[in-house]
Write a structure and sequence with these properties.
Layout (H helix, E strand, L loop, with lengths): L26 E5 L6 E3 L5 E4 L3 H15 L3 E5 L15 H11 L3 E3 L6 H9 L5 E3 L14 H8 L4 E4 L10 H5 L6 E3 L1 H15 L5 E5 L8 H10 L2 E4 L4 H7 L11 H15 L4 E3 L4 E4 L8 E3 L10 E5 L1 H13 L2 E5 L12 H12 L3 E5 L1 H9 L8 E2 L4 H8 L4 H4 L9
Parallel strand pairs: 1-4, 1-7, 4-6, 5-6, 7-8, 9-10, 9-15, 10-11, 15-16, 16-17
Antiparallel strand pairs: 2-3, 12-13, 12-14
């Protein structure tokens, strides 16, 4: 099932949106997150896009701008190039976008400059120009004012649809927004609405299912959900420091001393909160994290020496699925096991299957988790698939995201 967003999730969140921006015949600099995986030829030059999910996510805003007769100037980063690394050119991205939209997408020879500005001025309504990889410019990640101003010369208005980079104050995500009339694209708007609703007024009970590798990487979001959620379920390798803190043996499972200390403090926080913290009841373990290795399902959670915990067990999967069925809102970030190895994907699949059947708000975030849901063919059964990664977690933690703050009605335009 794919439930509709609630009225709370449709409430005003203070962002300037496309509804408030005049774009007809205007040059619109659209910051999208087109940082996609590429497939390379033997010579190392990128030949085509390996996964076009992020390009497809940008289509709603691109198509709307074109329908409203805007002149679209697309800008995105791609990887972390050193100088002008040709292996990270936007050429394959432009080619794939042209295939998806059915219209030509011209690639500019650079990011900024007189030649690029001339190309933007020659654009007709509905046409698309893609700038080269914005990280070819060293000032991008430093939020260089000169680069922000140079980007602003290429457009009349600015739209940011790159929620995945909203937690970074870069020239193309934050600096430029103060130099042009600016608005959030449809993807950015939807991300902020859905995630803000989880924090501020979710349909309860609110359940958070959190997995991944290290407790310390997600301690901020764990502690936040212990404040606002009704139930938090822990899976993935992240469960082992919690189990160790409760004096269970963890064998050779991923678990370092620093994370055990963090988990011990978190267990104390949970005990003093209204939120119920759930840990695995059983585990799937193996001698090695690879296909063909000897494996077994424990009835409990004490991992023998030399063995590695690689998935939650069937009793845990069933218990977490029951929590999903009882929840009004579920946020899921982090697989329940080593999902890339099929023998250890059952726990993650069980959670995904239950999320796909309930008629409640279900929000999934995090690259590995989203990839797992897509591999199961269940992405269309979720209320919302977040594109944010770190931005998603930081917003839920209550941090201010520079790329979002710059699009608020209270933001200044210099």
């Amino acid at each position: 099932m794919t439930p509709q967003l609630s009225s709370t999730e449709s409430a005003d969140i203070g962002l300037v949106t496309l509804d408030e921006l005049d774009v007809e015949n205007q040059r619109v600099l659209l910051r999208a997150d087109l940082n996609v995986p590429l497939e390379h030829e033997s010579a190392g030059v990128a030949s085509k896009v390996g996964d076009d999910t992020r390009i497809r996510a940008a289509l709603e805003t691109i198509d709307e701008l074109r329908r409203r007769e805007a002149r679209v100037v697309l800008v995105s980063h791609l990887g972390r190039p050193v100088d002008r690394d040709p292996r990270l050119s936007m050429r394959p991205v432009a080619d794939r976008l042209a295939e998806l939209t059915g219209v030509p997408v011209k690639l500019a020879p650079a990011v900024v400059g007189a030649e690029v500005r001339q190309l933007t001025e020659e654009l007709a309504s509905g046409q698309i120009l893609m700038l080269e990889n914005v990280r070819y410019e060293p000032g991008e990640t430093h939020n260089d004012p000169a680069l922000a101003s140079a980007l602003a010369e290429l457009a009349d208005v600015y739209v940011n649809d790159a929620f995945g980079t909203a937690h970074r104050a870069h020239a193309s995500t934050e600096g430029i927004a103060h130099r042009l009339p600016s608005a959030a694209g449809r993807l950015m708007e939807r991300e902020v609405r859905v995630l803000t609703a989880i924090v501020e007024d979710p349909t309860r009970p609110l359940l958070a299912i959190l997995g991944g590798a290290k407790v310390s990487d997600k301690i901020g979001v764990i502690e936040r959900f212990l404040q606002i959620a009704d139930v938090v379920c822990i899976g993935g390798a992240m469960c082992f420091p919690f189990l160790a803190a409760q004096h269970h043996t963890v064998g050779a499972s991923l678990c370092d001393k620093a994370d055990i200390e963090v988990a011990w403090r978190t267990l104390g926080t949970a005990a003093d909160s209204h939120c119920r913290l759930e840990l695995p009841l059983d585990l799937v373990i193996a001698e090695r994290a690879e296909y063909g290795a000897a494996q077994q399902t424990l009835e409990g959670v004490d991992v023998p020496d030399g063995w590695i915990g690689l998935d939650i067990g069937p009793r845990t999967a069933a218990a977490y699925a029951t929590e999903v069925a009882a929840a009004g809102t579920t946020f899921w970030n982090g697989p329940m096991g080593r999902v890339e190895l099929e023998p250890f994907a059952a726990g993650t699949r069980a959670v995904a299957d239950m999320l796909a059947t309930v008629n409640t708000t279900t929000v999934v975030g995090g690259g590995e988790t989203v990839a797992a849901v897509r591999s199961f063919g269940l992405q269309d059964m979720m209320t919302h698939i977040s594109t944010g990664g770190g931005a998603t977690l930081e917003l839920l933690e209550g941090r201010r995201l520079p790329g979002v703050q710059a699009l608020l009605r209270t933001a200044d335009v210099r």
